[in-house]
């Protein structure tokens, strides 16, 4: 029973990372109706920026804050420079642009920082596990940070004028323009916010998986499974799906399929959702006449 509780708590902690990346994916999807395949590589590059700042002597939390602002600026720049000119491009062209962006960030990260596996420091390390040995200090701290970020994002979109304008621009850009909302800039801010959230997720997961240019590939797959499971058009559902995937991954890896096949479980979730319930558990099934 203690082993089950440990896996459950660890799954919740891991699910918080997946929930953050899933939320970032949904934010981009709502704005563009495309999945940002480069989300993981952008988060990896941001994590390396934080690592470089820490190695340069910056306090850990100051390095995180600086990385979040830098990632936000990079996300805005990507939308303005690369994606805005492609607003009327075919779907395949946009997908190719996202894949190209993923490869570019992966190559730049490796070229600048190298491909060696590096340890990433955690500000939550303790000498002994917490909560009766169920969870490590980093797992508990990273979960708290993730929940705080998700709460701030929820409050921003629900209770601020800028957040409401971004939601309007994502849901109905035509009507948003009619009431004076600058839709182009709202989409750019959405990209920046998604990049910032991804940076936090990358920094939180790096002490667990270690830092290397491909560290977010598996995380992105689990996050995509969580976004689909919760509903790719529902931010709250994607967050719930991310936590659920984290719990299922840990429990299944420990008691069902083994650690070697856990990544296959994410693929099974993706295929199962697409076949049985494409709108996800909390998404909306959209019907249109043709």
From TrEMBL:
Source organism superkingdom: Bacteria
Major location (coarse): membrane
Keywords: Amino-acid transport, Cell membrane, Membrane, Transmembrane, Transmembrane helix, Transport
A Pfam family this chain is assigned to: BPD_transp_2
Bilayer disposition of the protein: Multi-pass membrane protein
Single Gene Ontology BP annotation: amino acid transport
Compartments where located: Cell membrane
GO molecular function: transmembrane transporter activity
Protein name: Branched-chain amino acid ABC transporter permease
Phylogenetic classification of the source organism: Bacteria, Pseudomonadati, Pseudomonadota, Alphaproteobacteria, Acetobacterales
């Amino acid at each position: 029973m203690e082993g089950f509780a440990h896996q459950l708590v660890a799954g919740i902690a891991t699910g918080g990372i997946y929930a953050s990346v899933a939320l970032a994916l949904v934010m981009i999807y709502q704005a563009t109706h495309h999945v940002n395949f480069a989300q993981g590589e952008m988060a990896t590059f941001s994590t390396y920026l934080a690592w470089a700042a820490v190695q340069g002597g910056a306090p850990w939390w100051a390095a995180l804050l600086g990385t979040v602002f830098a990632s936000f600026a990079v996300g805005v720049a990507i939308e303005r420079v690369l994606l805005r000119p492609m607003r009327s491009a075919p779907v395949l062209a946009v997908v190719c642009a996202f894949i190209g962006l993923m490869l570019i960030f992966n190559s730049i990260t490796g070229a600048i920082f190298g491909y060696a596996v590096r340890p990433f420091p955690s500000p939550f390390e303790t000498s002994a596990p917490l909560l009766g040995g169920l969870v490590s200090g980093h797992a508990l701290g990273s979960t708290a940070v993730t929940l705080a970020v998700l709460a701030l994002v929820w409050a921003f979109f629900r209770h601020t004028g800028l957040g409401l304008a971004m939601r309007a621009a994502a849901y109905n850009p035509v009507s948003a323009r009619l009431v004076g909302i600058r839709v182009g800039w709202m989409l750019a801010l959405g990209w920046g916010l998604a990049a910032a959230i991804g940076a936090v997720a990358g920094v939180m997961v790096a002490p667990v998986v270690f830092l290397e240019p491909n560290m977010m590939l598996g995380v992105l797959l689990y996050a995509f499974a969580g976004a689909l499971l919760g509903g790719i058009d529902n931010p709250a559902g994607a967050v719930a799906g991310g936590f659920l995937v984290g719990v299922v991954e840990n429990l299944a890896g420990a008691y069902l399929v083994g650690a070697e096949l856990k990544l296959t479980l994410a693929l099974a979730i993706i295929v199962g959702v697409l076949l049985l319930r494409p709108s996800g558990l909390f998404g909306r099934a959209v019907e249109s006449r043709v």
